[in-house]
Amino acid sequence: QVQFVESGGGLVQPGGSLRLSCAASRSIFRLYAVGWYRQAPGKQRELVAAITRGGITNYHDSVKGRFTISRDNAKNTAYLQMNSLKPEDTAVYYCGIEMLGSWGQGTQVTVSS
């Protein structure tokens, strides 16, 4: 099992930026694809972005061109750079490895003026 700790969330105005971090507890992290997910109130959790162990990325259509996922395997950490934030990006953001069923506790992102 792998534990994750997300950080970097907060309150930001529309058009602003945030950088989320996801620290994994074990180096097994580097063997798997990692995803960032989000869940807004009353909605299902959705995949925002994912990155394979080799660095191939994919994004939800709603964040393409605004969000960038990356990883540093030496630090067992994944990142989500979020730019041009919109109110509809407001959600709890989670990172995890779906194949292992391992997730963090999430970090709240609120986009509001």
Work out the helicity level: under 10%
Largest sheet: 7 strands, mixed
Count of helices?
Answer: 0
What value does the average pLDDT take? Answer: 96
What shape does the CA trace take? globular
Order of SSEs:
EEEEEEEEEEE
Terminal CA distance: 39 Å
Contiguous uncertain segments of 5+ residues:
none
Task: Please provide the count of β strands.
Answer: 11
- Structural class comes to mainly beta
Radius of gyration: 13 Å
How large is the share of residues in beta strands?
Answer: over 45%
Summarize the structure.
This protein has 113 residues and is mainly β.
Characterize the structure shown.
With about 110 residues, this protein is mainly beta. The protein has strands at about 5, 10, 20-25, 35-40, 45-50, 55-60, 65-70, 75-80, 90-95, 100-105, 105-110. The chain is about 0% helix and about 50% strand. The chain is built from no helices and eleven strands. Strands 2, 4, 5, 6, 9, 10 and 11 form a seven-stranded mixed β-sheet that branches. Strands 1-3-8-7 form a four-stranded antiparallel β-sheet, with no helix packed on it. It starts with a strand and ends with a strand. The model has no long low-confidence stretch (mean pLDDT about 95).
